[in-house]
Design brief:
The complex is a heterodimer. Chain A is built from eight helices and no strands. Chain A is an all-alpha fold. Chain A has a single domain, classed as Protocatechuate 4,5-dioxygenase, Chain A (Orthogonal Bundle), CATH 1.10.700. In chain A, helix 1 packs parallel to helix 6 and helix 7 crosses helix 8. Helices cover 34% and strands 21% of the residues of chain B. In chain B, strand 9 and strand 10 form a beta hairpin. The chains are: A mainly alpha, B alpha/beta.
Chain lengths: 135, 282
């Protein structure tokens, strides 16, 4: 049985659970609207005006307008949703993944070609696993 | 009587579909991945199933956060291709199999699996990339498809153990259908990948290899892997692998591994493909 939120010990990971769902709903539903071509066009024409249609708070608005991809996750963004903003900008999943992990596009692409980010040293925030993992 | 004759597990990375749609499969980046799909396509063409059940997840295409079905079955006669934010993929409309799909919906619910039923929904890369990978580029898909959609976008997805039991119930239901149909079942998603956060790009070849091995050797042990273990070991989006257990649960206890292919990277993902056949004669 998975203990509630025992995944919080995983570094650099924002699990879209009920807590994030409570704060992220409006932000993600804005992203969902970008599935329609006419909405993508309207968003690109005037981003701020388009965002007025959704009940985003000030920080959520900022993260969208500044394309702060990590920031979006921290204020309730779900990657399957926020990626739609990136598609609107002509970016790929790999472009955004590089930006979130804080390295250049080339460095990130090279890491993936070399087999990806190793789980070694990336399993626990403090790098010391608890004595008993109820997993 | 209908019968499940084989299972296919495959990743459903959107970039794999895009590479096919843009004619880039022969580039040095994509060639090693696509070469490995060749034997799977030949095997599937020889098998020529009458219908496929494809277990996949929707990626904010047909369903938003407005309503989040944990398990859903598509009973319509056709499923259009979704616009996921970059226009619909240029692939054929997916045709359904309403007679078998309704039989499954009724049987599963009476067997205590509380399915959501969808008459109309678009399908996204989660379903179409597995079709593209195993059928190639075509004007019409070679068989009708029953979409079986599992939530993995809003935590928590159903557990691996629950998915395995759903597979067992699917098999029971298929075998009670009164037409002679040879059915193939797909489990899709995975393998190790993380699309989000500072830890994006995580790949765990060791975990993936053990998972591929375990599908034949000890699927019940695999079905007990917790969500946290998937996320820690195989990346936050690696939890998609729960969907492979639906496929595995629908097969015999003893299966033969017919083929496997594993390649890193497909964009941010370790792409895996596994073909399993029942030991008992089809």
């Amino acid at each position: 049985m998975t203990k509630p939120r025992d995944y919080e010990s995983i570094p650099g990971t924002y699990v879209y659970d009920g807590e994030r769902g409570r704060i992220g709903y409006a932000l993600n539903m804005f992203c969902m609207s970008l599935n329609k071509a006419e909405n993508r066009k309207r968003f690109k024409e005037n981003e701020a005006a388009y965002l007025d249609r959704f009940a985003l708070n000030a920080e959520q608005r900022r993260t969208v307008l500044e394309r702060d991809w990590l920031g979006m996750l921290r204020v309730g963004g779900n990657i399957y949703y926020t990626i739609k903003i990136a598609f609107c900008d002509g970016l790929t999943f790999q472009d955004v993944a590089g930006m979130m992990s804080g390295v250049s596009k080339e460095t990130y692409a090279q890491m993936m070609l070399a087999g990806g980010r190793s789980p070694e040293g990336n399993r626990y925030k403090d790098q010391t696993p608890p004595e008993i993992e109820h997993g | 009587m209908a019968k499940i004759v084989a299972g296919i597990a495959t990743s459903h990375v959107p970039a794999i579909g895009a590479a096919m749609d843009r004619g880039m499969t022969g580039t040095p980046y994509w060639d090693p991945l696509f070469k490995g799909y060749g034997p799977a396509r030949e095997w599937l063409a020889r098998l020529a199933p009458d219908v496929a059940i494809i277990v996949y997840n929707d990626h904010a295409s047909a369903f938003s956060l407005e309503i989040i079905p944990t398990f859903l079955i598509g009973v319509g006669d056709k499923f259009p291709i979704a616009d996921e934010g970059f226009g619909p993929r240029p692939v054929p409309t997916v045709l359904g199999h309403p007679a078998l799909a309704w039989h499954l919906a009724e049987s599963l619910i009476l067997d205590e699996f509380d399915m959501t039923i969808a008459n109309e929904m678009p399908v996204d890369h989660g379903l179409t990339v597995p079709l593209s990978v195993t059928c190639g580029q075509t004007k019409a898909w070679p068989f009708p498809v029953i979409p079986l959609c599992v939530n993995v976008v809003q935590y928590p997805p159903p557990t691996g153990a629950r998915c395995f039991k759903l597979g067992i119930a699917i098999r029971r239901a298929v075998e009670r259908f009164d037409q002679d149909l040879r059915v193939v079942i797909y489990g899709t998603g995975g393998m190790s990948h993380q699309l989000q956060g500072e830890r994006a790009g995580l790949i765990n070849r060791q975990f993936d290899t053990a998972f591929l091995d375990g599908m034949t050797r000890d699927p019940l042990a695999l079905a007990r892997i917790t969500h946290t273990e998937y996320m820690r070991e195989a990346g936050s989006e690696g939890v998609e692998m729960v969907m492979w257990h639906v496929m595995r649960g629908a097969l015999d206890e003893n299966v033969t591994e017919i083929y496997r292919h594993y390649h890193v990277p497909a964009s941010n993902t370790a792409a895996g493909l596994l073909i399993l056949e029942n030991r008992s004669p089809a």
